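[step 3/7] inverse_fold.run input=structure_tokens len=58
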């Protein structure tokens, strides 16, 4: 079984409305902390970087 280091978003609420992210050299994985076994969205690292760059800072 592979080891993946998940990190919870710093923007996550205290009510369990959380997103976790695992960044790897060639891809990024995103999952919901309320249902960790429910599935993972996997995108290329380049796609993740483009997404983050497109999100306005608050």
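[step 3/7] decode complete -> sequence:
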């Amino acid at each position: 079984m592979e080891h993946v280091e998940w990190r919870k978003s710093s923007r996550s609420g205290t009510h369990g409305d959380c997103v976790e992210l695992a960044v790897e050299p060639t891809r990024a994985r995103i999952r919901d902390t309320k249902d960790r076994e429910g599935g993972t969205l996997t995108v290329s690292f380049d796609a993740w970087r483009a997404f983050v760059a497109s999100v306005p800072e608050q």
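[step 4/7] annotate
The CA atoms of residues 21 and 30 lie 5 Å apart.
Residues 1-8+18-58 form one domain.
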